[in-house]
Amino acid sequence: LEDGRMLTARLVIGADGAQSWLRQHADIPLTFWDYRHHALVATIRTEEPHQATARQIFHGDGILAFLPFSDPHLSSIVWSVAPEEAERLKQLEPEQFNRELAMAF
């Protein structure tokens, strides 16, 4: 510390953001993983209310999450898939995208 004192701990959590002061000053290295996935993010309206419940589906080729908004029929989706699949899904017409989304869920 600035006054010369030293703190010790068995565990330090640096949750102060991407440009972490703590990480930089404690010389904690960054580790990165390439998951080889892209995320598609969208807001969707559903026929049935989501009942304020988040849902997540794990497929062999990706992850699909439904995150509820305060409106009972609106959710944000985060669909994690391989880059090529993300590009294919982005090119679909809305009706076809909705069918693919329903099949994935």
Automatic annotation (TrEMBL):
SUPFAM superfamilies: FAD/NAD(P)-binding domain. GO terms for molecular function: 2-polyprenylphenol 6-hydroxylase activity; FAD binding. It comes from the Bacteria. It holds the Pfam family FAD_binding_3. Residues 6-100 form the FAD-binding domain. This is FAD-dependent 2-octaprenylphenol hydroxylase. It comes from Serratia marcescens. The lineage of its organism: Bacteria, Pseudomonadati, Pseudomonadota, Gammaproteobacteria, Enterobacterales.
